[in-house]
Amino acid sequence: MDAELVQERTEVRARQRQSRRHTAVSALGPLTALAGLVWALAQPYRITLLDPDKHGFWYLVIQPPLLVILVGAVFHFWVVPGLLADLERAEEEAVP
Amino acid sequence: MEPPPEVVHWMFGTGFVFLGLCLLAETIVGREVWRRRSWRRYLWPSVAFLMGVLMWPVMVFYTSSAIHMLAHGVWAQAMMLAGAAQLGLARGKLKNILWELTVPLAFAVSGGAFLIHEQNPWLFSRAAFLHHALGWTALAGAFVTLGLFARPRSQIFGAGFALILLTFSFLLFCDRNVAPIFGHLSPLAGGR
């Protein structure tokens, strides 16, 4: 009985830790995009698309806050899904 | 139609954000899970190597003095060496674990190049401030990655490595062609 309880508690702890890892990885992309959004709001003059006539090609294409949002999105939609699937598989294999 | 220098810095900053996110994710899930898919194993070394390759045109087209050119050449070689060594280790072509030391070496050499080639004090201009900050960040990166070499499973060193790269990106995004730093701009740097 005691052994069963200990095993159950160990499994619950392992699942909690695993879900924390899951949450942390899932949050990286959105947090990065949020940082870019906050930056865009703090320095709206960096968003040159709002005033396209005043800027040349490169300043219209390369806008750091939007690049940060883009990186967050690319990471979230390209890297994270496969990583979470592998993480879940590894967690399932780890649970006896 | 070359992009202005500050735009080039921002592009490299974008690359460093991506590298930082990849390394942070690797630290969170663990190296074994990260390397379950082969393309992911090669992801950050390839990006680092590519950034090293792209540093060469920056060296050719954007440097205005010999020391500036040499510094960019050193960064290009350092990033290519670290990226290529990591690719070789990931592929299994390189067996000796000492190749991992190319990363702290790249950081140390890059930091040295930043600090040596910037001849003005911290508050002379924004560029000077950023060069000093980047140089010391790179030297801190050398210590952190040395720690990661000694303790490869350490989450603190893993996260530290990622945060160093994110700091790099932050500093590169702060770069402007001419702008004050903390409200100060030397007359010699374009201030009135």
Q: What key phrases describe this protein's structure?
A:
heterodimer, A: about 100 residues, mainly alpha, about 80% helix, about 0% strand, elongated, B: about 190 residues, about 75% helix
Protein described:
The complex is a heterodimer of chains A (96) and B (192). The relative contact order of chain A is 0.16. Chain A has helices spanning 2-42, 57-61, 64-94. By secondary structure, chain A is an all-alpha fold. In chain A, helix 1 (2-42) packs antiparallel against helix 3. Chain B has helices at 5-29, 31-34, 38-62, 66-91, 102-117, 126-150, 155-173. In chain B, helix 1 (5-29) runs antiparallel to helix 3, helix 1 packs antiparallel against helix 7 (155-173) and helix 4 (66-91) packs antiparallel against helix 5 (102-117). The two termini of chain B are 30 Å apart. Chain A binds chain B through residues 21, 24-25, 28-29, 32, 57-59, 62, 64, 67-68, 70-72, 74-75, 79-80, 82-83, 86-87, 89-90, and chain B through 1, 3-4, 7, 10-11, 13-14, 17-18, 21-22, 24-25, 28-30, 32-34, 36-37, 40, 43, 173.
